[in-house]
Amino acid sequence: MSQSPLPADTRPPAGDPAPLLVVDDLRTEIHTRRGDMKAVDGVSLTLNAGETLGIVGESGSGKSVLGRTIMGLYTTGATMTVSGRVLMDGTDIHALTDAGRRELWGSDVGMVFQDPMSALNPVKKIGLHLTESLRRHGGLSRAAARARAEELLRLVGIPEPGRRLGQYPHELSGGMRQRVVIAMALANGPKLLIADEPTTALDVTVQKQILDLLGRLQAELGMAIILVSHNLQVVAGRANRVAVMYAGRIVELADADVLFAAPRHPYTEALLSAVPRLHHPPHSRLEAIDGSPPDMVAPPRGCRFAPRCRYAGDDCRQVSPRLLSEAGADAARAFACHHPVRPVNAGGS
Q1: Which keywords accompany this UniProt record (predicted)?
Q2: CATH number for position 74
Q3: What does the DSSP assignment read for 20-61?
Q4: Which end of the chain is more exposed for a tag (fewer CB within 10 A), N or C?
């Protein structure tokens, strides 16, 4: 049994503006020699203009594949099959031609990749990385594109932007390269920015700088952000809503403050328990989640988290739970669990 598409309480109330992004029953199957790997398996969600949605989960949960599939960065046919709908401002991304998607990437949707070195051509100077998109999508002259590129580097906080345009990626620090990738993603003023693990391999000081930068640019430009991370601390305080992914599916979706205060899905609870706390005594052992994520070529029957869940019953091992909405006192949420975690203030036994 698959997840129910677009749970009612995750849609904007009647009369509100239409969502900027609608993802409806999205599925991505990667074809391997062992069989079809369901990297994204029936994901549905919405995102409003100016909103930040955090997508969290362990490595291998499908977060990055989801981000790339939403954007339309995939190769269908022998290696991959994609189904479902992704509506960006009413336009079905997956119904576009390759040329149509490239136009969309240049104007409406930008992406910050996990590893900046994989997004930057090592034999191209920084200036060329930026001016190519500006000239192609913005129709700027060579001189105007260079002036705009310098302005973008200044916008993302890179010192001496004019000199940096003449440098190669390897001549910049990791933090500067990440800022360049952000500048590239913002070059043509996108409505949506997908940030896939934007602080991976950066020290904590630079991590905060990059996240603060994204927050400032969002406020200035009014864009929506999908913030993909395996680190709950990265999305805490920065996302309006959080979607928790496990084994290709969303298992919990809620406003950020509600989810962090009172998780309902056992996987969400386990992730939060593994986060170090400042009030814990020194050298305290962190709680680990027993076991490993399932093989997505042959996932277990029933709930995919059941083999690792301390609350699992016989029904969990037989029937896959649907993602159902629950209207709480503070905000709407949805979770897929037969035996959800009881709220801390719940009465009774």
Answers
A1: ATP-binding, Cell membrane, Membrane, Nucleotide-binding, Transport
A2: 3.40.50.300
A3: SEEEEEEEEEEEETTEEEEEEEEEEEEE-TT-EEEEE-STTS
A4: C
Q: Is the pLDDT of residue 5 over 80?
A: no
CB count within 10 Å of CB 149 equals 28
Burial call 182-213: b when 16+ CB within 10 Å, e when fewer? bbbbbbbebbbbbbbbbbbebeeebbebbbeb
Q: Distance (Å, rounded) from C-alpha 176 to C-alpha 180? A: 6
Q: What is the DSSP pairing of strand 52-56 with strand 241-246?
A: parallel
For residue range 115-138, list pLDDT tens digits in order.
888 889 999 999 999 999 888 877
Is 116 domain-assigned?
A: no
Within-domain flag for 198:
no
C-beta of residue 311 within 8 angstroms of C-beta of residue 264: no
Structural domain for 263, as ranges = 1-96+239-303+322-344
How confident is the model over 15-70, as pLDDT tens digits? 567 899 999 999 999 999 999 999 999 999 999 999 999 999 999 899 999 999 99
Give pLDDT, residue 252: 97
Q: Residue type for 176, please? A: M
Is 171 among the domain residues? no
Q: 41, 248 in Cβ contact below 8 A?
A: yes
Q: Roughly how many angstroms between the first and final C-alpha of the chain, as a whole number?
A: 30
C-alpha count within 13 angstroms, C-beta hemisphere, residue 183: 29
Q: Please list the residues that pair with 196 across neighbouring strands.
A: 228
> For the chain, how many structural domains are there in total?
1
Residue 246 lies in a domain: yes
